[in-house]
Design brief:
alpha+beta, five-stranded antiparallel β-sheet, Beta-lactamase, homotetramer, globular
Chain lengths: 307, 307, 307, 307
């Protein structure tokens, strides 16, 4: 299919989104994020031929939040390989993103690396015995190299805001510790995690960073094809919290959402896509962003489940 | 990639599988299935160019059991369209295939159509106000037409055996009824479901029936491409019970398993694959079959998450 | 303490109850019970000196429902002794009366004989290999002998109404069967249970039947003192479903409620008390009945936790 | 009943207990407690006539651990009255003592003040805005005054040992904080709680302190009769964690256990009893202590459920 009409379609979709009556509500548990104007929408794509497209607020930086879990996972798999899976599972959770229930049921081994408990274990593993700044530096290096853009930074105010309201995550960390599934002090892991979540990127930067997962031609080879495929599989089954099955059904592409309103989508071999709109649905995924992702997938026919 | 070496590789994999020390254990809760010799393995593929391959016990009929959920789902979506989703969700369950826990938590709306509770609702919806034989005839028609083979039958002894040991499913049915999510009498739905699960197919027949989901060229168009894609998405996120995430991670293809030991796999646009070996792993999925699926995906490079 | 003022106080409390703004709502899942006028209240007491007191609708028959679990438990302990406890636990459930969750968690052994699952096992044990009418006859004999009143009957219309809306209990029964914790066919146990629940008694009859648990002097010795004490203990910890702790805290006496609006209370050695008002609170216990029980306990100072 | 034979019976029971083959295992999650020799048993009673009895290691101090929850509850009810119940429930939990599951299910309101989460809220409420030493001083004052013995102290080594292994409790505290059900910093509450649990008492001291709950004549009136009754009710329904129902069934007296192996029992108006033996059963209650409690209740006939 020719993608000649895609730029125009993106503009059209952004315009339609801007007319949305219901934008959802920005995450309110992190004060810095609650301040964001919900009536914003952006999108950017990187195609296999090197074309980059953008529409709406494609160049406005936002807090990537849980999308950072993809990058910390990629980094830690690079360091530890499959050893990580002794500490974290690979199954959808069937519960909310910050639930502690299944953690109890499964003796402190989080179901997957994209629920908070699993992401905290991932960050703990990335820390190893190192200082937080070393682990963060490794993530930042990976993200910048993948995006081929050094102008990507951590928003310290957001990190501090998250640390100050981190009771639930601290509970998860102590719970993991009680099951001997935490190597570093809870506060240290929490601080590292809060900073990693506070990475700011634009849709354009995020789409570029996602090219390594889409395995687009001519892109810096940050991770092996097998690893990229497996991360995509995890994004497909676990990337949208308890809305993952529905997202796979409606959109048909691996994706990872963040409570900052961003979603990174991967069409392997074809495109890397970033959408952003700060208002969230009941599962904690961007409401307008999910709609936009579905419409782009519908227009282009991109679906890993299609021929 | 040329598939010239594939026939030989299939023979090699089957030979390697036959040397397996641990075949897993056949389902023991259905007496008729418990009798099956576990030391069997079969595989069949249909490729996009019309080639059909087979190795091992590719022509030995087995009880497809839960794989029938794919066909009843396809049939009922054809009758009801998206109305079904008012009664069943599309999310992985995070629990065992016959768990009643989440059913309680979610007020009688099963998480997805592939856990038992959801499949029972699907069969109930397919029944509508009709007689069991009419619903069964509709499923059989779909399966036979998709496989282009009329020699596919229901094993009555297996159906009776399943009905006689159906306490857990009867509990689910009455529970659904108590939540007004059952239209027909529990016994009627149970009887229909037991018969649908007792369909016998060979790997070759199953691979042929799966072509409609793989959307291979020149195959009878039983369902629309959008519907096929969506069923594939459900197979990816929910097809292997509480082992679905791991299956997606390791195999990278949508699949649906049955406690008879069969697995149907879909490589959209490329191939339809059926593997069979009666011994099960701890999740209720074929142990050697899962291994075989992973090896075939590894050899061919087929993965929906690859370029 | 002299109880001379008690008759007058009962009249006063009934009058105050009649002015209640909120009577709660009668059980609506059994159609026959839903018809009952909620604006009714009755109370009866049997004291250690043989005095019997009554106020309000003390002589109006009502459906004792789950209060019958006390009598079937007494009967089955008489038949089986402590063997019953291999099939049923003695712990409060921490969940609603008809929950299936903990049943799954504990492999089909109900937490106690007063949640529905446990009462169904109790009735199943009472049946042994006998006909329903034999088991029912045993319960009726016990109740009539304890109350020294043969004019106690089963309301067949209520029994049929309950059987017709028994999906949840049927689910529990099949679930118990799937765990090999049911000896008789689910339908047979359900029928027996529905009839046992449909016993009709007046407050006066119920208070008289309760004298065996209060171990009042000169009362027919239906059960041993040790057994009476233990049944009282179960009533204290499990008798009001998920409101048992609060009832113990507020009232301080063992009690067993039924969704017909009755509550049987036991002040060991001192009094047997029956209250009735059909409207229920959120736990399924009589709203005005609970209030009345608390006020009577407050006035008399009867509490097993007092000197 | 004459209690003349009781002293001899206590000696006999202690001798029989000393011959026990299986003492259970001391709590191993607090290193200081794990060191205790399990083959010890002590008992002390205070009777209504002022008699004090003891046998075995009645004068050996042990760590009262969770029994302190009774004293902190009494103290905080004295300060706050029924306001506490807005933050804590009064229902048995149906789960293990340190479970986090129901806390999630009930939005951060612990089921009762005797599971860890509820006891932490109780200590938090006792702190108010004060320093830990002020709250601890209040508890110590209450315990010493109730026992009429100033020689009761906190074992600092045990407190430090508990703080050092407090991951699970820290998880509960942060979880409570995330539900706005914690007023003070988690570390401060944890420190206070660890010290309160580390109070050391002998059986004799504990039995004396329990006289206020038994409301024995001539005992210092630390709390009102209504409050004593209500605390007894909570001990009855929730005092032995998930073994409370069974304890009520077997022993018939309100009791509160601690993982140090002590149990405080209350026979209202009749006696206050303390038993101690460090080995625990599967619920975390003293194994030999529970046996001893049951035998004493059996010998004396003391049961709140008896006439």
């Amino acid at each position: 299919m020719s993608m000649d009409g895609l730029p125009k379609e993106l503009e059209r979709l952004v315009a339609e989104a801007r007319g949305a009556g219901d934008w959802g509500r920005p995450a309110d548990y992190i004060p810095e994020l609650a301040k964001v104007d919900p009536a914003q929408v952006g999108v950017a794509l990187c195609l296999a031929d090197g074309t980059e497209l953008g529409a709406g607020e494609a160049d406005r930086p936002f807090s990537i939040q849980s999308i950072s879990k993809v990058f910390s996972l990629a980094a830690v798999l690079g360091r530890l390989g499959d050893d990580l899976w002794r500490r974290v599972g690979r199954e959808p959770s069937g519960t909310a993103f910050d639930s502690i229930f299944l953690l109890e049921h499964e003796n402190g081994r989080p179901r997957n690396p994209f629920i908070n408990a699993g992401a905290l274990v991932t960050t703990d593993a990335l820390l190893g015995g190192r200082e937080p700044r070393q682990a963060l530096s490794e993530i930042m290096h990976l993200v910048r190299a993948a995006a081929e853009d050094d102008d990507i930074h951590i928003d310290k105010a957001v990190a501090e805001s998250e640390k100050a309201t981190a009771s639930r995550n601290m509970a998860l960390l102590y719970y993991l510790q009680s099951h001997d599934n935490l190597l570093n002090p809870p506060e240290m892991v929490m601080g590292t995690y809060a900073h990693q979540c506070a990475i700011e990127m634009t849709c354009r930067q995020l789409a570029r960073a996602g090219r390594m997962l889409a395995m687009l031609p001519g892109v810096p080879a940050m991770i092996s094809p097998l690893r990229a495929r497996r991360i995509n599989a995890l994004m497909m089954t676990c990337g949208q919290y308890d809305g993952s099955g529905n997202f796979a059904f409606r959109v048909g592409l691996p994706g990872k959402s963040g409570v900052g309103g961003g979603i990174l989508l991967v069409a392997p071999g074809v495109a890397s896509i970033a959408v952003w709109s700060p208002g969230l649905d009941g599962y904690g995924n961007s409401q307008v962003g999910t709609w936009l992702a579905e419409r782009i997938a519908g227009y282009t026919g991109w679906s890993v489940f299609a021929p």
